[in-house]
């Protein structure tokens, strides 16, 4: 049941407070999140198995073509005797088409996963109960908004990458004194900082676009940047934390594949293992940034003198 409460002191949940509140929200919302997590895990695993089995013979044939024609890359680069390499070119086209299809299907799965998790977690955080029917309706009503916002974030990311490449290129050409070297070092060191900030901005932007109907695309990105004021470091550190966990999962998967196992055995172990942990990490990341959004929105509303909802945990303590 929804609880209307009078505003209290400004929200001040720190880094670990956000994580702790996210765990509570996930626990309260388990009846919806667990089936969603299971469906995403099964869909992602089946997709990976299908990709491996479809591409395995194609990749094997392409390697055979490379061994048979060691000068193939050189000849294709200079348009020399391409008819000889029709089989290899067909393999490349098939690989690219399968990869593109897998990318599209994976993006659809991630989009539905995002909208379902953010919508249900937002309701759970504000002390409401969302039924499966309501969740489906929310997915149907809001899936376009995070898709459009992600498109604009991709454009922004490419713009930033282009700016970095231009800066590095110009600095490399002009690197004739110590100041140029220092500038080049500063650019290099700023890359991971910018990466994690943009990743956090992207996450907050899509959360905004899911939860606020009037904010989509550039408007959602602007809204996210406004909410992140004063908490950019906190949001970026949360992305660093998830990146570290993703790295640990990759290392664990590599440890498994390093053993002398057959290809089918490695696939049977690593695909469910990595997909299960990646799906769980992604779900918790969505919940964390949903809680972060509500905390920042509460703080922003307090500054403007608006009312707000406290999370159910805070309501229970009142």
Would you kindly provide a written description of the structure presented here, covering whatever features stand out?
The protein has eleven helices and no strands. It has 318 residues and is mainly alpha-helical. α1 (15-28) packs across α10 and α4 crosses α10.
Main attributes of the structure:
disordered N terminus, transmembrane, transmembrane helix, globular, membrane, 318 residues, Transmembrane protein, 0% strand
SSE order and pairing:
Blueprint: H1 15-28, H2 30-68, H3 72-77, H4 86-125, H5 132-142, H6 144-174, H7 178-211, H8 218-227, H9 232-257, H10 263-303, H11 312-317
**Rg, Cα atoms, Å:** 24 Å
User: Helical element count?
Assistant: 11
The coarse silhouette is globular
Oligomer: single chain
Mean pLDDT, all residues: 82
Q: Can you write the helix and strand succession as a string? A: HHHHHHHHHHH
| Low-pLDDT ranges | 1-11, 312-318
Estimated structural class: mainly alpha
DSSP E strands, number:
0
Protein name: Transmembrane protein
Keywords: Membrane, Transmembrane, Transmembrane helix
Organism: Centaurea solstitialis (yellow star-thistle)
A few lines on this structure:
Helices cover 81% and strands 0% of the residues. It is built from 11 helices and no strands.
